[in-house]
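User: Hey, quick favor. My workstation is busy. Could you predict this chain's structure for me?
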Amino acid sequence: MSFETEYAPDTDEIKKDCARAILKKDDVLITSTGEGTIGRVATYHFTEPAIADGHVAICRLHDSINKPYIEEFLKSEYGQIQMLRHVSGSTGQTELLIDWIAALSVPLPKPSIQNLIVQEMRDARERTREFTDRAKHLRERGASILAGARGRMIQRLNNEKVCDKIETEIAAPSGDDLTSQFKALADSWKRQTRHISSLGKMVSHPAYQAIIAMEKPVLPLLLAELRDRPDHWLVALHEITGEDPAKPESTFSEAIEAWLVWARTKGHLK
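Assistant: No problem, here it is.
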């Protein structure tokens, strides 16, 4: 959130004219207009003053009220159903009047139950984020395995053509040694795939496949590159070694760390 906007009440005149719209810390905000967005709920957690526009209703609760619980209830299907029942207006001009918001019924169980509900919802969101991260990593790993297999298939079916493509697309190494060859291939791969978002296309690139073809002698260089400049080298490592020290639920950064630990254990890195 940026406070350096026209919505910041930075003069006494603005504060006076917009007194009812100036937000305070722990205000509960509800979008009161807009098809598809009406009924969204959030708490204003900032101490900096700001002004809510006309599409947001401000709910300022007594200090004794458990505000995180109120937010959770209003986000639940019970709170949302109440609000949606009172939406008025035609398509594209829907509105939730402030009088209906003030009339919302919120059950108030014992404080201990309210706190339990809030904590359970926070824990559930945290676990959801973890599962989302794991799912993303697993999708990437699955795509990389398929891409690796397709790359090998292309090489086996038309090896001569693939080699010709590598020669035309990849800058010539500065020397015959393994280090200069790896550096030339890695630089070409990074340069030619920096605008590609598909992991499958990245790992099937000829330069990437050429690095895999260098096999185990390139491992120390590849692992040092992963350590110093993390990138999508995990597929190449798996193809060369046949191993995968990362757990299935690992995030990308955790998978990198698992490979670095493996490398030190095997003596490939100091």
